[in-house]
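User: Just a sanity check before I run the rest of the batch. Below are the structure tokens for the first item. I only need the designed sequence back.
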């Protein structure tokens, strides 16, 4: 059975291959099915954006589609960047530039006041318009400079205080147990099992 993962990002596809390992689905990207256009993510919440993408790509492809929206919420910034995490520093900006922009916004915020969480909402949609949702979150804090290379986005800035490592310093197998996407994917796994 085919499952469209609503992304052009090969790194995200690799992560989903690991998170959904053992399920009898063939995972495909938007590029694999010839979809080049991006769905405008104009929802006010992660759930709204994930639903928009899942429904649109399921309709375009005729395939069961898994879409997620995830991002970073920083307490000292009133929950920013939130749903704007990818576009926080502008469109087409590299992860490194986005991380530097976030650090500049937190320049005067001391340790102990840099609480943050990664959130992920996964929506699975059928071509008929049915949807199912799973959520995950991961609590931590933002450090003062990037550390680690195993990850993307804000992973090098997101510290697990109890472990003393960033998301980007975790080995993939551990990250795939504790991350916000891993927690949401566990819920998605249960949904996908029921849809077989």
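Assistant: Here's the designed sequence for the first item:
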């Amino acid at each position: 059975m085919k499952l469209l993962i609503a992304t052009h990002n090969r790194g995200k596809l690799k992560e989903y291959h690991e998170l959904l390992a053992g399920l009898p689905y063939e995972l495909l990207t938007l590029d694999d099915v010839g979809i080049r256009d991006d769905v405008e993510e104009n929802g006010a919440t992660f759930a709204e954006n994930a639903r928009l993408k899942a429904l649109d790509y399921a309709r375009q492809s005729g395939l069961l589609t898994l879409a997620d929206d995830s991002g970073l919420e920083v307490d000292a910034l009133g929950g920013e960047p939130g749903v704007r995490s990818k576009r926080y520093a502008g469109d087409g900006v590299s992860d490194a530039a986005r991380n530097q922009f976030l650090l500049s916004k937190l320049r005067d915020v001391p340790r102990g006041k840099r609480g943050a969480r990664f959130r992920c909402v996964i929506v699975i949609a059928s071509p008929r318009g049915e949807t199912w949702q799973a959520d995950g979150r991961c609590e931590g804090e933002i450090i003062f400079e990037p550390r680690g290379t195993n990850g993307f986005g804000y992973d090098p800035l997101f510290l697990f205080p109890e472990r003393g490592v960033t998301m980007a310093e975790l080995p993939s197998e551990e990250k795939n147990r504790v991350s916000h996407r891993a927690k949401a994917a566990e819920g998605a796994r249960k949904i996908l099992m029921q849809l077989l």
